[in-house]
TrEMBL record:
The keyword Signal applies. Residues 1-19 form the signal peptide. Keywords: Signal. Residues 306-384 form the Secretion system C-terminal sorting domain. This is Por secretion system C-terminal sorting domain-containing protein. It comes from Chryseobacterium polytrichastri. The lineage of its organism: Bacteria, Pseudomonadati, Bacteroidota, Flavobacteriia, Flavobacteriales. InterPro entries: Quinoprotein_ADH-like_sf, Secre_tail, Vgb.
């Protein structure tokens, strides 16, 4: 796996209280069949449940993007925001929303956890039929580039959900093919490759976790799924239905069968049971974190900041309010490979500054903005997302 050139950037550990604000689960009722129960926050450190955000019994407030107005949905169909069959959830940290899709529907929904309002994204791109298990969308994740990605069981549709000019757009990226080396651990057969979930790494590759415990790496450039191994350390018959990266960079997995949560590293796929007796029926997990991500915010001084982190007008602000900071500072922008793509000199007088920086011709994507003093000491590094 590609290593990034950010030796000074440290992954910050989140507290248990904070984890409940950025780790989510799509849960089901305690029944043999798939029946949606709610979306809820999860403490992925202690293996405990947080608040329920939106449930099958909640009052739905749905806004149609295509019709530009509120709609009332028929709850007796598969095409509604509280459909019984759901197994795909992602967290859009750029907008602090939950994105999800019913299994038997082409609809995409975006839920605001605070207002409980839902945006319906109708589209003709997703090809789902209730009687075709191959077509069901069962995996979804946020990508490092700020978009949301989803995939059906057989990999014949790999979807990108992006937001442009305040409108959501769905694109089909193509068919994910089988790597010839997979052998009996096939990505495209039910027993070894279907279902489960997926997570992204900092190179915008994806790891698909099948219900069987098999793990496949999908390159977005080649659109090819390569078997990397099988999860060990879980009980026989453990069904892997949810996967998300935690603040430590490890993967948390969950089961629809009401089993405990487990944590594992992509390096060895050895799972270790998390504390707590959650035992929820979890169909999917979602978080804001990525595997192999070294570009997490690091700050030495509390009164130094770069904002906004989602940049849609090619401008960022550098704010300083610290008397110990003076003289010349250097702002450096790195792309996700660690390449220096921009530098800007900043002068701070009397420990106070609020300056706008024009990001010139940076293309859309994830970057790291770093501020260093005259001696080269990094005072702040922060991930930003350019979405002009």
């Amino acid at each position: 796996m590609k290593k990034h050139l950010f030796p000074l950037f440290l992954v910050l550990m989140s507290t248990s209280a904070y984890a409940q604000q950025d780790f989510f689960a799509l849960t089901g009722k305690d029944t043999p069949s798939i029946i949606f129960n709610d979306f809820r926050a999860i403490d992925a450190v202690n293996g405990t449940s947080g608040e329920s955000i939106f449930s099958a019994d909640s009052s739905a407030k749905v806004f149609s993007q295509a019709r530009n107005g509120s709609v009332t949905e028929d709850k007796n169909t598969y095409n509604n925001s509280q459909a019984v069959t759901m197994a795909a959830l992602a967290y859009d940290s750029s907008n602090n929303n939950l994105v999800y899709m019913p299994m038997f529907s082409s609809n995409v929904y975006v839920l605001n956890p605070k207002t409980k309002e839902t945006t319906l994204i109708e589209n003709n791109v997703v090809r789902v039929t209730s009687c075709d298990i191959n077509s069901h969308i069962t995996r979804m994740s946020n990508g490092y580039d700020g978009n949301i990605y989803a995939m059906n069981n057989s990999g014949t549709q790999f979807l990108q959900i992006s937001k442009k000019n305040n409108q959501y757009v769905v694109n089909d990226l193509g068919i994910v093919k089988e790597d010839p080396s997979n052998g009996k651990n096939s990505f495209t057969t039910i027993e070894t490759g279907f279902g489960g979930d997926m997570i992204a790494d900092a190179d915008n590759n994806f790891y698909v976790f099948a219900t069987s415990g098999n793990v496949f790496k999908v390159s977005t450039k080649e659109l090819k799924a390569k078997f990397v191994g099988k999860i060990t350390g879980v009980p026989e018959g453990y069904s892997v239905n949810g996967a998300a990266v935690n603040a430590k960079g490890n993967v948390v997995i969950a089961s629809a069968k009401g089993a405990p949560l487990y944590e594992l590293s992509l390096d060895n796929l050895q799972a270790k049971q998390l504390p707590g007796n959650l035992n929820l029926h979890i169909y999917d997990l979602a978080s804001k974190y990525f595997a192999n991500d070294k570009a997490i915010s690091k700050t030495v001084l509390a009164n130094l900041d770069i904002y906004p982190t989602r940049v849609d007008e090619q401008l960022i602000n550098v704010s300083v309010n610290d008397k110990s900071v003076k003289g010349n500072l250097k702002l450096t922008i790195f792309d996700v490979s660690g390449k220096n793509v921009m530098q800007e000199n900043i002068f701070v007088k009397d420990g106070s500054l609020n300056q706008q920086i024009y990001l010139k011709n940076l293309i859309n994507g994830a970057y790291v903005a770093s501020i260093a003093n005259e001696s080269g000491k990094v005072l702040l590094s922060k991930k930003i997302l350019v979405t002009k």
